[in-house]
Amino acid sequence: MKKFKLGTATAAFQCEGNLTTDGRGKCIWDDVLLNDKSIAKYNPEPASDFYKSFDVDFKLAKEYGIEVFRLSIAWSRIFPTDASTVNKKAVEQYHKMFKAMIEKGIVPNVTLHHFDSPQWFVEKGDFLSKENIEDFLKFAEFCFKEFSEIKYWSTLNEINAYSEQKNIKAALPPFFTLEYGQFFKQQYNMVLAHSRTVNLFKKLKIDGEIGVPCNLSPYLPIDESNPGDVLASQKANAIINWGFLEPIVSGGYSQETIDLLNSVLEHYDFIFKPQKTDLQEIKLARENLDWVGINYYATNFVTKPDEIIDFSVNTTGEKGKSKFNIPWLWKTVSKPGVKSTHWDWPIYPEGLAIVIKWVSEKYNCKLPIHITENGYGDLEDITKTPFIKDYDRIQYIQDHFDVIQKLIDEGEKIEHYYLWSHMDMFSWTNGYNKRYGLFYVDFETQKRYEKLSAYWWLEKSKQDRLDEKVDLKELEKKLGK
Ligand code: BG6
After folding, report:
1. Which of 301, 303, 310, 306 minimizes the C-alpha distance to 336?
2. Which residue among 313, 347, 420, 429 has the greatest number of ligand 1 atoms within 8 angstroms of its CB, and so is best to mutate?
3. Which GO terms describe its biological process (predicted)?
């Protein structure tokens, strides 16, 4: 039996909709998107109505060769008001959801936190407060014991990216911009939350496996022979990638990484010195961890920064809007010959190999790897093109599959691949315009439509090797489309 499994991914708040159904409590995004008109660009209701229409998506999953499926439990549905009052209706609904998947032979991989801290938790300081980790552990323990049908658990999705949205990109409370000190403090607490959750899972002797989806985008020097570019890239990798990856996959921090981190953090009057008790917890979590998740989308190219602050994030899909130049950090530049998406994300499949080697070689972590996210966001409109022929997405996935196959051939233990995303959902800061799904969602009618990539995916699911190709001309002919 081949061990490698193909799957797709979702996240509760991005697809569930039903914001007031079954006594759900608000999460961090509700008020940001619904009340603050200066920021709100879209309404998270009804999203893809997944909370109720999940069966439609699981049927498609089964029909199109999807074996594993990533989804998350909304903490604010299970504990809507505080850390201990359980909402039974939501618990029942999640049982129904998991049953529907499992009956179809689809294996769930469930994330406990996917960017959606409950509002009551946010009001206590979210993960910026170390004491609050206890609340997350109560939620985790409840889920581990209650949902015994789940065999794959993920702790916290993209620890660095959640902290980035709050402290760098000002997308979420406390709406800080470029506050790398705060960013690191929150990220550190989330590393601890992850570690303590993994250790709890093993202490409770839960039957299953636990891992963590790590968002990794390498920052490469545009000129490897230029020391200024190399230093810029090291600083960026330390603060964005290694600062959280290293403790998770190596069980501690090297002096080299601590020094690099502090070369950034000193600008924010903060010097990082991990506490001994935290380090014990982190080390034990590394020993207890079952698999490492990698979310990979893009690679950044950097150079020595100029003496001005120039920072903007592309949230519209209008090319060229992303800018990053911070005098004490780095400057992001484009690399000739490397294409990027409409949102200025450089398409560089080689970057996936770089981050996998960080885990297996730089940090000598030989645990199984799951590619927990990878995918291509595009502007698509079914009212203009009734059948979405998403050639760019297909190319993107195939190119990344080629890299994965090569690594598997070389001996890397890559076991699952989850495409972001199963069906279209909204994108956190880009709204409904940025679509990633194999299945197009008409958000008005909630109808699903197969894109060409869904048919292509079905063909891929029948192949033995990821680098085998599908003849698209033949496929289109066969489909008559
Ligand atoms: C990951 C997240 O960061 O990337 C997903 O885990 C997210 O939730 C995905 O949607 C794509 O990012 P974006 O910003 O294009 O939606």
Report:
1. 301
2. 420
3. carbohydrate catabolic process
